């Protein structure tokens, strides 16, 4: 017997069948307790269990779970369950349950394919990925070529909007990260150079590292996290809502409408952001030189001008152009790979960020090797 304020369970046996009457409330909060009480009052080998629910005042999904679980236990014992009396509300609720589906055992997991078959699956997936990437690259190249030959065909209103999102709205975070990178680089260099009395060469190290590597690289990584993810999410949402299919059905080129404005905007704004990153990063090194090393600003900039050339800045700008193509292209490509549902959009957005950063680092390594060889 349970708490009277909660529910009551009474049982009796008649002609080999167990008669169980339930009174009170049957809810999620007391479902497990109720099932234990019912099971405790069942005979060892019941032939049939008859359930009286006419006295139940409240019944929710917890009661449905109790009935399903009780039926499973009785089936395992070779007995049946029959509801003799109920209420209209309980009958309406139970009519929504597919007891046959709930009674079926969970399907077994398929066996793992052998190693050779898995290698074949991976190979086919890799080939499909390379084929789609090459085809999309061709679309982007043709779209950029058409934009250069016919500038009036470019959707400039969308391009200005993407330029604002990729450039103006990203400027604060780019400046903050670049200033901190210049600050950190100068501090780390000063710790080593101070041992040899070569504090003045902090200007050389900060200037070269920021303009050649850290400026374009950190700016591209920020753009991959902001713009690349935004491109993938936007196109992925359009793909899920079948807007991309609608463009195709109307005979419109998806590259000209969706890809070209994004690529052009990032191609213009990423080199500009890189220049700002170079300037702010150098100012971060200047702050360390002035307030920690007692190097005047005039001496700092003169030392930097002696050992830096315009080629050092052009290296970073050349990298930023390639980084922009990679970020925008990968973001749009991953967006077109979305299938159905919000989960697919989230997965493609994550893939765009990861693939974009990976491509940026690989391209930066190639550029570094080529520039040092030349």
Topology:
Layout: E1 7-14, E2 17-26, H1 31-40, E3 48-59, H2 61-77, E4 80-85, H3 88-94, H4 99-103, H5 115-149, H6 156-168, H7 171-193, H8 202-240, H9 243-249, H10 254-291, H11 297-307, H12 310-336, H13 342-373
Helix pairs in contact: 1-2, 5-10, 6-10, 7-8, 7-10, 8-10, 8-11, 8-12, 8-13, 10-12, 12-13
Task: Describe this structure as you would to a colleague.
The protein has 374 residues and is an alpha/beta fold. The protein has two domains: 7-103, STAS domain (Transcription Regulator spoIIAA, 2-Layer Sandwich); 139-373, no CATH class. It is 71% helix and 10% strand. It has 13 helices and four strands.
Q: Please describe the biggest sheet, giving its number of strands, its sense, and whether it closes into a barrel.
A: 4 strands, mixed
What is the global morphology? elongated
Give the strand content.
5-15%
Percentage of residues in helical conformation: over 70%
What order do the helices and strands follow? EEHEHEHHHHHHHHHHH
